[in-house]
Design brief:
alpha/beta, Spore Coat Polysaccharide Biosynthesis Protein SpsA, Chain A
């Protein structure tokens, strides 16, 4: 029997994206799974909209860039339940779709951890698959990942990523993983803009798995633990990789696992630094400092590169952002 997978989506005011992702998940050719949607939104709009989608076969208020699933594996009405965060800690549920309303929005890690902690308490699974809600998955994406894990047990893979493809430019890669610069403490996407046909031989090694698609095993979670909640957004994947490495776990990405990503539609983020929203840039800078304080002792490089980043904001006449960065840098 195939091992159970918990498929985890974190929703923040993005119910249309979440529904499109859910429809693609229901078309997976891997059938032993339970979906957990954790809602971080300040209102109940997303929860009620996802409920309407789950119960109404004619509910179609979702994006149209990808073809709709006319005959999903689980025909609606879909069995679902809506519970509070506290209820997720005290009882187990059998419904295909479990919607957990978070008490507060404490960020990416905390939201996903609600679902992973539920799975760990239940102990009836082989893997957890964290997916960004603004993704659409290929029907073979999960099966290929699990096959890859099983074929490479000698590598002790802790976190496995997918080939992320631009949702609106399906012939281009968004990323196959991330690169981390240990001198500037900055990151970048690997493979960005390259042909979707680019093979594994081009990027055999990555520094971290990008959070839009992360498959982790039961054994890994028991050994390393869930995502660090020190970060609101960003650097939590690199933190996970560093903690994993200390315990002998490796990371990798699966070339055949295809995930189409809209890339930060809810927070205005982009791998291209100039395109980031101010909210996104501030969180990157905050998380960069937190990561440095946890894992590095080289203060000279950190301060020099931080001041250079701040100087560039002033040079571009982004004065408010520059002063905000400076305040983050000098505040303990």
């Amino acid at each position: 029997m195939k091992e159970k997978v918990y498929i985890i989506l974190l929703n923040y005011k993005g119910w249309k994206d979440s529904i499109e992702c859910l429809e693609s998940v229901l078309k997976l050719n891997y059938y032993n799974f339970q979906i957990i949607v954790v809602d971080n939104s300040p209102t109940l709009e997303s929860v009620s909209s996802i409920k309407s989608w789950a119960t109404d076969p004619d509910f179609r208020e979702i994006p149209t860039a990808f073809p709709k699933i006319v005959d999903p594996l689980y025909p609606k009405p879909l069995d679902y339940i809506i519970i509070s965060e506290s209820e997720s800690k005290n009882k187990f549920y059998e419904e295909t779709l479990l919607i957990i309303k978070a008490d507060k929005n404490l960020g990416f890690s905390a939201g996903n951890n609600i679902a992973m902690n539920y799975a760990m308490r239940r102990e009836d699974y082989g893997y957890c698959w964290i997916l960004n809600n603004d993704t659409v998955v290929d029907k073979n994406a999960l099966q290929y990942q699990i096959d890859y894990m099983r074929k490479n047990t000698f590598s002790k893979i802790g976190i496995l990523g997918s080939k992320l493809i631009y949702y609106f430019e399906a012939n281009k890669i968004q990323a196959i993983g991330g690169a981390f610069n240990p001198f500037s403490y900055t990151t970048k996407h690997l493979g960005e803009g390259m042909s979707v046909n680019t093979g594994k031989q081009k990027f055999r090694n990555i520094d971290y798995v990008i959070g839009a698609s992360m498959l982790v095993s039961n054994d890994f979670l028991k050994d390393v633990g869930v995502l660090s909640e020190d970060y609101f957004l960003y650097y939590e994947e690199i933190d996970w990789k560093f903690r994993a490495a200390k315990k002998g776990w490796s990371i990798d990405w699966c070339e055949k696992s295809l995930v189409f990503h809209k890339e930060g539609s809810s927070i205005g983020s982009s791998s291209c630094f100039q395109k980031r929203s101010s909210f996104s840039e501030l969180n990157v800078f905050k998380s960069r400092k937190i990561f440095f304080q946890k894992f590095s002792k080289n203060k000279i490089f950190f301060w020099l590169t931080s001041l250079l980043i701040i100087f560039n904001r002033f040079r571009r006449f982004q004065l408010r952002l520059g002063f905000s960065f400076l305040k983050i840098l000098i505040t303990k």
